[in-house]
Amino acid sequence: MIDFSVDPEFQKKLDWMNQFVREECETMDLLFPEQGAQFDPNYTAARRHLKPLQEQVKAQGLWACHLGPHLGGPGYGQVKLALMNEIIGRSPWAPVVFGTAAPDTGNAEILALFGTPDQKQRYLGPLMAGEIVSCFSMTEPQGGADPGEFTCSARREGDEWVIEGEKWFSSNAKFATFLLVIAVTDAEAKLTERMSMFIVPTDTPGIEILRNVAIAGDFDPENGHHAHIRYNSVRVPLDHMLGNPGEGFKVAQARLGGGRIHHAMRTVGICQRALDMMLERAVSRRTRGRMLGDHQLVQAKIADSIIALEQFRLLVLKTAWLIDEVEAGRLPHGAARNHIGMCKVGLATLYHDVVGRALEVHGSLGISLDMPLAKWYGGHMALAFADGPTDVHRSQLARAYLKKAVPADGLFPREHIPTRTAAALARYPDARDG
Ligand SMILES: Cc1cc2nc3c(=O)[nH]c(=O)nc-3n(C[C@H](O)[C@H](O)[C@H](O)COP(=O)(O)OP(=O)(O)OC[C@H]3O[C@@H](n4cnc5c(N)ncnc54)[C@H](O)[C@@H]3O)c2cc1C
């Protein structure tokens, strides 16, 4: 009933990807390592190398596979996407080469789900073709993860919406052709109906990027790509609302599940690469007359990493399968929610543990920028916060299970052995005779 094999035709595609990512995408990582280089449409040298690689991906039918046919994409579903993303996760350039880079993936998903035919033609088409980059502008400097604290607002004036307020960590805003901005349109409404989503072309007057914040792993603190933006009476026509008035929360929610699971899938790839590095170092370096891999504490690091990676990989695949079942209508809406939360929490822990151990086994070389591990190590916290902090998901997951938990009837828990033994003896009074 449960089958972990991959069908041979698809395996051939994965084999092609494996070789292509190692040979071509990892080469891009070395040639163009600058922060944000993957998303910069004006980086002509990088674009010149990128285009032919994207063409090869398209020729293989592997381009932009995050959207399934029901949303107008070529995708094969989340299980196959999980296997693909494991390979893509090895390389920072690979998501762009394969047309599956965040935040464009999630943005494409909500444009496909909620966009009008005109919005799809103007924004989704070029986005899916890899011609433009987009940005999702939701988090606020004072509001963080809590939409209840959001103050950036939009008011209607004639046949326009006027957006006023600030957003924080709007990734890739400086490269984007358009921003998806969530703003309060009815402050009195309940939280889930308080906001609306707007498509804002980046050349609209009034958009002010205050700073481009850099994060761990970036090289230049003043040239990051997570924008702190002020919207100064930014005007968009009425037809630039995505979804209906008051549906902003619903639209935003629709993109977050996909983002979280895709990050989880790619985490498997990067952690597998870190594990491979750990193994190589363990059989290459000698200390105290033995190879590193002959020391038991190094063996423990390796074994713990293998187990954690396999456990997480299985969780991601099961979650991907649940999402596919929901989309096929065989499971109810929301049936994958808890598992997506588990992936979100688990990915940061796995990333921290496996990359951290690989770094430690490499010693000073590991923490140096001669190896990719130190940069990756900083990345685990970025993944812990992106798409909502890990703690929020941990808490939501626990609450979902607590809601279903049934209190014990009496003084003792249902598993209390003396109580259960008494009940068993009451059922079989002669059981212990003779
Ligand atoms: C690399 C990266 C890229 C990002 N890209 C984007 C983007 O493109 N667009 C965008 O809009 N945002 C983006 N973000 C922002 C991201 O969504 C926020 O970082 C996230 O929602 C958390 O908000 P905050 O950072 O303000 O943390 P806070 O909300 O201040 O949370 C800080 C800490 O407080 C605790 N906490 C907060 N809320 C709760 C709760 N309900 N229960 C328990 N504990 C809680 C947790 O420990 C949490 O880690 C990005 C972030 C990163 C790191």
TrEMBL record:
Keywords of this entry: FAD, Flavoprotein, Oxidoreductase
Swiss-Prot/TrEMBL cofactor(s): FAD
InterPro entries registered for this protein in UniProt: Acyl-CoA_dehydrogenase, Acyl-CoA_Oxase/DH_mid-dom, Acyl-CoA_Oxase/DH_mid-dom_sf, AcylCo_DH-like_C, AcylCo_DH/oxidase_C, AcylCoA_DH/ox_N, AcylCoA_DH/ox_N_sf, AcylCoA_DH/oxidase_NM_dom_sf
Domain Acyl-CoA dehydrogenase/oxidase C-terminal: 246-401
Residue span(s) of domain Acyl-CoA oxidase/dehydrogenase middle: 135-211
Domain Acyl-CoA dehydrogenase/oxidase N-terminal: 51-131
Keyword Flavoprotein tagged: yes
Subunit structure: Homodimer.
Family (UniProt): Belongs to the acyl-CoA dehydrogenase family.
Protein name in UniProt: Acyl-CoA dehydrogenase family protein
Species: Novosphingobium album (ex Liu et al. 2023)
